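ok so I'm stuck.
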Amino acid sequence: MLEQGLQIKELQLVQQHLEDLRTAIVDIVQNCWEGQILLSIPPIGPVQAATIIATIGNIANFAKACELKSYFGWAPRKKQTGVTMDRTNLSTRGVRPMKQMLFLMAARATTLDCEWARIYRRLLPRLCTYDEKTKEYRGKKKVLGRIAGQMASMIYALLKTDQETLSQVPPGETPPPPMLYDREVHRKHQEGSYCSLKPNTLPRKILQLPGKL
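replied:
not stuck anymore, here's the structure
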């Protein structure tokens, strides 16, 4: 009984330490520039934001979004035979915990009232096979992978834009507030109205070119 009581006290102490650590993480993330940006993107929470910041370090280390996606482990690798596409899968490179966390974030996003869930519902009939017996789509992981890759690209775009903006602020001047995720901008972008994150850039409509006659 004495040993069991000591184990319970140790578990309670560990639980208290975890709560203290979580409180500290929330405080740090909410008060740092990158954290505010990441927290504005659904479904990123304080722990996920802290993990992303710790994994990336400085976004200036990545010249393109594809480099960050590869580092996160979400760079597609295509295999072809002649002119026929056999299959597309993910590269085995990248930070495994970050790769797993992005997938879980994508899965979580599909259950929320957000733009990611709308994209998920739109892609299901396009990328998956409908099973008449189970009344469910097969191959949902393919769609979740697409969303995870788009999340990585959005993380890069917002953090990179903020980094470039801050680099142009003269010493001593107060920097502008960080550019946060905007659901309406995200929706319009998905509908074809591309809007650059760079200031003073007019939006343009992405047109679908006609096929060969």
